[in-house]
Amino acid sequence: YCLREAIAKVRRPRRLTFEEGPLADWLARELRSCVDELVVCEPRRNSWIARDGDKDDPIDARKLADLYRGGYLKAVHQSESLGRSLLKQQVSLYHDRVKERVRQGNQLVALFRRHGVFVKATHTLQDETWHLCLKQLPKSPVLQQGLTLVRQIYALLRTQEESLRAGLIGLAKQEEPIRRFETLPGMGWIRGVTFYAYIDAPQRFRSKAALWRYSGIGLERRHSGRGPVKTRLSRQGNRRLKNVLLGAAQTAIAQAENAYADKYRHWTQEEGIPAPNARRNVARAIA
């Protein structure tokens, strides 16, 4: 309310900008109706603010305003609806749980291997296998307590992951675009809802090349003077989108009986394109 009141005192046209951060999504939804233009900008581009000697809130605000007037800010997309924002939040939470579950599983396996016991993390959830593995370890209460703790965390994360996965699939089935994504070879419900949540508004991309760069599967061009034009893989981009598209491409190729697998075979066998480059081409075709 205080922010809206302060903004209302400014004569129109009102233009507001602030940097991307934990509060940016909420602030954008709450303040968008109060201004004529709202720009949530990429803080990594604002090195003039971050690296300058004098730094406090009034100075930073003035510099940010100068960057805005000069057209030097890079806008960061924000979901306009609360529903889309919450869907993206849920997708992110799911992937965080998957990452943490894998980490805890690897830690559990590593702890057993330190004592010469080789077992898969999923097998430790079976009581019979668990007790059999414990019998092969030194008789140490400290060791067993640590292993039991990691196993409990791993089991909890698996339960949370399965619950979140079921919920996401239920949400995905309610969205018509995701139902179409799911029919693509290699995509599936989770990859489909992840792509949908992170892309949000396809019209914000000027071209397919811009979408590919944002997804981490595009190319960057380097050229100076009369020198040769060099291209390289984009080093930035959304890692989750990159994992979704490359994973979908790999699955589609493995399924073999689809148009993407046919393209992959054509590129690798007839045109001699290296397998990683051909897989990336398939990912671009899916996107």
Task: Give a structural overview.
Residues 179-263 form the Transposase IS116/IS110/IS902 C-terminal domain. InterPro entries: Transpos_IS110 (IPR047650), Transposase_20 (IPR003346). The mean pLDDT is 90. This protein is mainly alpha-helical. The chain has three domains: 2-70, no CATH class; 85-174; 188-286, no CATH class. The longest helix is centred in the middle third of the chain and has 32 residues, at 82-113. Helix 8 (176-182) packs across helix 9. The protein is globular. The protein has helices spanning 2-8, 24-31, 47-51, 57-70, 82-113, 127-135, 141-172, 176-182, 188-199, 208-214, 239-255, 259-270, 275-286; strands at residues 15-19, 37-41, 219-222, 230-233. The strands form two sheets. Strands 1-2 form a two-stranded parallel sheet. Strands 3-4 form a two-stranded antiparallel ribbon. It has 13 helices and four strands. A hairpin with a 7-residue loop joins strand 3 (219-222) and strand 4.
